[in-house]
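Hello,

Our lab assistant flagged a job as stuck in the queue for most of the afternoon. It eventually completed. Since we weren't sure the result was trustworthy after the delay, we are filing this so someone can double-check. Below is the sequence as submitted and the structure that was eventually returned. Let us know if re-running is recommended.
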Amino acid sequence: MEKRIKLLGRTPEELTAIALSEGLPAFAGKQMASWLYQKKVRTLDEMTNLSKEGRARLSQRYEVGVAPVLACQVSRDGTRKYLFPADCSHRPELHAADTDPNLEHSAIEAVMIPDGERKTLCISSQAGCKMGCRFCMTGRQGFHGHLSAGDIISQVIAVAESDELTNVVFMGMGEPLDNYENVRRALEILTAPWGFGWSPKRITLSTIGVLPNLHRFLEESRCHLAVSLHDPFAEERAGLMPVQKAWPASEVVRLIRQYDFTGQRRVSFEYTMFDGLNDSPRHADAIVRLLRGLECRVNLIRFHKIPDFEYDTASDHRMESFRGQLEKAGLTATIRASRGQDIDAACGMLAGQNRQNQS
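-- returned structure --
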């Protein structure tokens, strides 16, 4: 049986074109958008202001497209990690070069992090990742395919906490700016009045700094930005993050300096700390030189041990001293609390695997 086409991820204009092609009135497109993004329905039958005959015609070729939850693990700290199927074998908008034939057998993960009244969902933008950062489990598995805008939005709808979410961060599997067109569309859906209607202040995109698309993101979006830095020295950073050779951190910072982050949009720099590798006073001094005068925050992150990587996390004492050195020089720095490590949900640990201790 031919797979149905997903409606999720489409704009009102595209939904209107689908409605007309199936013999429905033009205004049915806006109605479908409301059902998809504001009411978050899972089936066409729930779109009750469409005629029964119209829904029947739509169901011959289309479906809503919210992915099922394959598994959910719950951490001791309340963090929840959701596993979803990643299947883009039917997506006409993807080129063959962007798709792994085995993607339909892959999986992606999203992580819900509770913090008082805040509930933040960390979502994925790709199955696997091309960037090859040595300390990241997602990078270890290689790249399997881009997620469509619908599959990105599906994560926000499918989790049990969907109606309670306060924030979304594009910090899950994949490099968001390597899949920019689909991520841009997902951001539009999240912030448009016809979509979720969220303020851009509720959304943060994390990137290693894909310069051409970073420029587009800074021009086209008001969402917050987080940049994966991890080492201020070019040669050392290249040893951890091969993308340093294509998009040096110094060039990324130079581009960011051209934009205003003194208002409601924020930029932060993520810095995973490894014992004896990037946690010295000279590293802190280099960060100060790199970021001096830029309105930003440096988030210091504990490294979560993964197989076949020789370094451990820096000690708490070293991280506190490092933070103090940055703050003394005038930078805002925080030590990020580690969440969900016991279920492999912490930074750099997402691998799209179905674990046994499910809930």
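-- support follow-up --
The delay was a queue issue, not a problem with the job. The result is valid. The chain has two domains: 5-63, 71-343. The longest strand covers residues 106-115.
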